[in-house]
Amino acid sequence: MQMAIVTMSPNALTDRRIGPDRRQRRFRAFLYQFTHQRRRNDRRCAAAACYVDIHEPLLLLTTLTALLMCIIDGYNTLLLLDLGGVEINPLMRELIDRDATLFFSVKYALTAFCLMILVVHKRFLLLRVVSGYHIIIAVIFGYTILIGYQYRLLASI
Q: Is 3 a member of any domain?
């Protein structure tokens, strides 16, 4: 059995291309995704656990709500500590003892990172029961209870 050796000129593939290279226009490609939305649904995947490129506006709203509630919680925590309260979380207590700005930055960064992971995995099920989106809703519900409790404490002082 003989093998045939095929040689091609280095420009053989580029000779067939027409027009400029689209990969060089990164900003235009970034803007293109907003007008030509792809992968909003899981068209190639039969299972519900698929990644998508475009997310719903409601998901953005819930994520921003959770981040806003994180900021309110951090502010209320610092306010309660100034009025004589005690931080129960040992990690946050250590950060507050070092610097209030460090506490606030780490708290916000941890929350934002976890929310980002949940947004990316919004269609994946945790323990085959709860999706990432539903966990974000639960975070908002938990923050609502926590902030309500903090306001009750502030009203009683």
A: no
